[in-house]
Every structure is written in C-alpha cells, then in structure tokens.
C-alpha cells in the first residue's frame, strides 16, 4: 500500500486551510486560518472579502502546514484542492495556487468535492483510531452552513460512489442557526453560540410545528422528489414571528450592541446578555432542528439498508445533535461516527484524505479545470 503524502488545500468559504495527510489515514498537520473576525460585522460571509483574505493567507498557511508535517515541497506526492461547491472567487484562490504548485513541482494534482471531503474527515479519523472496518453502505448526513445532504455511499474498488437521497429545499441547517442567531442579536457564526446557550433554556417552552417541507408537490418534478428532504426556512420565520409577537425586539437590540464589541464571546458573557425567554427560544429552536435531522437520517438509514451512519460538516460539532444521534442510533442498532470537532468544520485534512483513493486510482486533474460553485456530488 502506498504511503503517499498529500497536501490538501481548502478555500471554498471563509477558512483558508492546508494540511498534510499520509496514506489517507495519518494526519501530519492541519492548519486553518479563520476569517470570522473579518465577516463578523456583516453577520455572514462577504464573498469579496473572503477572496481577499484567502489571497493574504494562502502562502503562510501552506508553509505552516508543510513545516508542522516535517515535509517540504519536494517530499510531497500530490497536491489536492477543493474544486467546489463554494464561493467561486474563494475557490479560485486555492485552485490557482494548487495548479501553480503542482505544475512547478511536476506532481499530480487532484480535485476534491468539498462534500466528499466532509465525509472523508470521518473516515480519516476512524482509520487513525485503528478502525478499518466501516460497514457499507454508509449513510452520510453532511450538515453545514451551505449544505444539508444525505448521501448513500458504497465503496467499489477502493473508490467511493455516492447517491444523493436527501437535501434541503431551502436553507441549510447551519444557515438556519446563523440566521436565527443574527435575528436574536447573538452574533456570528450562530451555531456555536446557540449550542452553548441551549442547555440553559427549556427546549419544550416554544412549540414549533414539525420542520417539514411544505407544498412538497408544488414546483418540484416527481423524479426530483425524495422522501428525506429537509426545509429550515420555516422555523427561521417562526422564530422571527415569535420575537415580534412576544415584544422581544428591544432586548434583542440591546444585546446586539453589547455583543458587537466582542470577537468570540465566552459562554458566561453570552449568558449575561440573555433573559430566560431568549434561552428558552434558542433551546426550543435547537431541539426542533436536531430532532428533525436525527429522525429523517435514521428513517433513511433504515429504509435504505445502511449499515453505518456518518454525521459530518460544521453542524456536526453540535453537542445536542451528537448526543441525540448516539442515543437514537444505538436504539436502531446502527454505529454512528462523527469527526472530532476540529475536523467537523471546514479544513484541508478532509480534502487530502478524500484525495487518497483518487491518487491510488490515478484520477488526476488536467490543467484546464476551474472552480465549480455548484459542483454536485
Ligand atoms: O462546514 P462548515 O465549516 O462550512 C460550510 O461548509 O458551510 O460549517 C459552518 C456552519 C455554520 O453555519 C456554523 O454556524 C455551523 O456550521 N456550526 C455549528 C456549530 N459549529 C459550527 N452549528 C451548530 N452547532 C455547532 N456547535
Ligand atoms: Zn464545509
């Protein structure tokens, strides 16, 4: 078996990341430069600013990844880069850099789908722990700021093949977290904040209708419908309506101003600025989203005969989601694996790991390819 060392590069959204992974199973370095401080004042990622920050960070981040791995440009066996999906301008920074590097070094260049990367983050860490016997088919829930997808994955001749059996019809789950946090004046990104606050609220205090697709049969062709689709825009609107009808607007404005000066507020600082009503609302929102993600994923796993469940992407860092999956999957007799919190959110280790089967198969990119903002898996 080849011991190839692959440099991964990831710039699809707001993290500039580089990592070196040996043989798809040994993480030698993992460097992530986050742009949270740049985008925080806007309450979301600003594409032009993201590209500019990637340009600034890419060279030092790659150098650091090589140094921490004890590698140099010559000792690498291949360069892997995210081709999409993501922000076109942001992707292009990583792609241009990776192309130039591979060309100058005369090393193979491998392109990776960002979503496939999230799935391989799980596999990389399982292998690192010594677990080489993941049972197929695997049902992977990829749940992040831009995506909520269910993929049924099979391994054939060392390569993974995917069938997309569910997706969000509107907002991604992470997007709903971010929007709800924004409208409650809790800052950006919303997921970690709501995760930290939820245990302090009553998750049964506010009743939301089931987070389900409305009007499933309208505007969607029959072939395009799947039973496992998600929809999170309704709950975001329900939170907004609750804030309006319960007269919470003033307290939201006060909180927004108080937290605006803090870059990464600690849980205690967040708690100081939240009344019980807000904590109950946040806890109820999270419980509804988590229950929906867990129930639909396990239903799909059961009906599709999956033998393993992977939960990955930024929202997979969520404590309640993890606990709920562990509890419910155990009842269903299914093993469920997550990446560590570090590899749940965007990183380049997952890109280098996903590139390894392609390296073995000689699946290399030609020089002509470009970024694909809506690349499907
Ligand atoms: O995978 P990721 O880093 O980037 C995308 O590919 O989108 O995911 C970022 C998303 C954001 O929406 C963020 O709010 C969410 O993941 N997130 C979380 C948590 N940590 C990050 N959502 C819920 N709970 C968390 N602990
Ligand atoms: Zn991601």
Question: Can you describe this structure in just a few lines?
Answer:
The chain is built from 13 helices and ten strands. With 377 residues, the chain is of the alpha/beta class.
Query: Any idea what the radius of gyration is?
Result: 21 Å
How much strand content do the residues show? 15-25%
Trace the largest sheet across and list its strands: 3-2-1-4-5
Strand-and-helix sequence, N→C? EEEHHEHEHEEEHHHHHHEHEHH
Unique ligands: 5'-O-[(R)-(carboxyoxy)(hydroxy)phosphoryl]adenosine, zinc ion
**Biggest β-sheet, characterized?**
5 strands, mixed
* Overall spatial form: globular
Q: Please identify the oligomeric state.
A: single chain
In the predicted model, the low-confidence regions spanning at least 5 consecutive residues are none
Backbone structural class = alpha/beta
- Calculate the terminal CA-CA distance, rounded to whole Å: 27 Å
SS element count, helices: 13
Q: What portion of residues is helical? A: 40-55%
Averaged pLDDT: 92
How many strand units? 10
């Amino acid at each position: 078996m080849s011991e190839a060392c692959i440099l991964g590069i990831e710039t699809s959204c707001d993290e500039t990341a580089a990592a070196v992974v040996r043989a798809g199973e040994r993480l030698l370095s993992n460097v992530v430069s986050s742009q949270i401080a740049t985008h925080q004042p806007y309450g979301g990622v600003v594409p032009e600013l993201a590209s500019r920050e990637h340009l600034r960070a890419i060279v030092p981040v790659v150098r650091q990844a090589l140094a921490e791995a004890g590698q140099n440009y010559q000792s690498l066996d291949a360069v892997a880069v995210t081709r999409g999906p993501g922000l076109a301008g942001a992707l292009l920074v990583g792609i241009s850099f990776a192309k130039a590097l591979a060309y100058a070094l005369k090393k193979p260049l491998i392109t990776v789908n960002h979503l496939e990367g999230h799935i391989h983050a799980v596999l990389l860490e399982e292998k690192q722990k010594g677990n080489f016997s993941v049972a197929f088919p695997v049902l992977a829930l990829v749940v992040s700021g831009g995506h909520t997808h269910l993929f049924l994955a099979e391994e054939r001749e060392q390569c993974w093949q995917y069938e997309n059996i569910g997706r969000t019809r509107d907002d991604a789950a992470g997007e709903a977290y971010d929007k709800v946090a924004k409208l409650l004046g809790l800052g950006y990104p919303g997921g970690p904040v709501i995760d930290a606050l939820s245990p302090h609220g009553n998750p049964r205090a506010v009743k939301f209708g089931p987070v389900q697709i409305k009007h499933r049969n309208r505007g969607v062709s029959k072939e395009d419908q799947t039973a496992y689709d998600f929809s999170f825009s309704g709950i975001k609107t329900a939170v907004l309506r609750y804030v309006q009808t319960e007269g919470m607007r003033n307290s939201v404005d006060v909180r927004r101003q108080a937290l605006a000066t803090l870059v990464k507020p600690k849980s205690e600082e967040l708690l100081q600025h939240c009344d019980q009503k807000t904590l109950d609302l946040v806890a109820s929102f999270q419980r509804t989203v988590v229950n929906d993600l867990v129930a639909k994923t396990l239903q799909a796993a059961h009906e599709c005969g999956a033998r393993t469940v992977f939960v990955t992407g930024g929202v997979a860092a969520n404590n309640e989601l993890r606990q709920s999956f562990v509890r419910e999957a155990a009842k269903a007799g299914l093993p469920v694996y997550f990446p560590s919190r570090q590899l749940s959110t965007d990183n380049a280790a997952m890109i280098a790991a996903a590139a390894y089967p392609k390296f073995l198969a000689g699946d290399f990119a030609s020089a002509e390819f470009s970024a694909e903002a809506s690349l499907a898996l």
